[in-house]
Design goal:
The chain has about 350 residues and is of the alpha/beta class. The protein is built from 10 helices and 16 strands.
Length: about 350
Amino acid sequence: MKRRDLVLGGGVFCWAGLMGKSQAIAGAGLFVPPEEGPHQRTFMQWPVNRKVHPDPIFLDMAQQTIADIANTIADFEPVTMLAAAQDHGDARAKLSANVELWDIPTEDLWCRDAGPIFVVDGAGKIAVSHIQFNGWGEKQVNRRDSQIAKRVAARLELDLLPTGLHGEAGGVEQDGHGLLLAHESSWVNDNRNPGMTRVQIERRLLKAYGANRMIWTDGVWGEDITDYHIDSLARFTGPGRVLINLPDAPDLSDPFHAAAIETHEKLVDAGLDVEVIPEPHVRRVKGFDFVASYANYYVCNGAVIAAEFGDTETDEIAREALVRHYPGREIITLNVDPLGEMGGGIHCATQQMPDL
């Protein structure tokens, strides 16, 4: 499959411009700013639960990977790691002094899904738009993780705005300028929102994000724990711009490949500027269910933190694409294979708090 190169204009985004455009869409209401806007901090979660991670060696690897990501981001912006007080000693041994620890108990590491979704308005008000996490449809223990967004909002003394939805922020991609993208499988699903139609869910998602338009594609039901989160496939890199990670030789008998091709076609048909980057051909981890997503990166102040998979050619293609899409930012790549073995990536493990 050929890559479709995208020529980008401009340079580093201006926050005032982002605020103006987004606020014009959302009116007087609250909205989620684009990820590439300025951050006050990044939130992350410390994995500890032995039901989720029964192998102590792998749990140590997962913790070290989370620490590596946190320590890297902390060179560019403040990082707050959420963990129960009794877990702070083990976490501090792996974390740099630049990473702050809060006493908010956790089970697993997926802060994109369990953490707070911050919304802002033009007057400088911040609140938490609350989509209730339920362990991806009660597929995983979530006694602690389902309370994280509420506990962070309480500690920050922010309003918690209920949406009436169960789900995860990793299941919806947003550009901060009024457009959302999602797979139906992660939302129109009885394990999260039983009895709700797509129209009802869309209405609530648009309100939750302060957006006015949404693109849906089918996705894949029941083949992975997330029901195919969109943030491992396609990411908005600015208004009307998308970076999507596709296999060079898709196997249409593979439900994930077929769903990915459908998503790509719908994005192109919608008139968006879409650039395709290939999945790695060579990987350190060979497992069938390993998530090798270049799209699952995180944008922080002054940098993009992305994965490398050990394929010299495709690692470089992905890095060059990020350079084009995020001019003026440092591109840092990390080996985060333990996250891929768990079905996620760097974006899944992070959640930004915007800075006004």
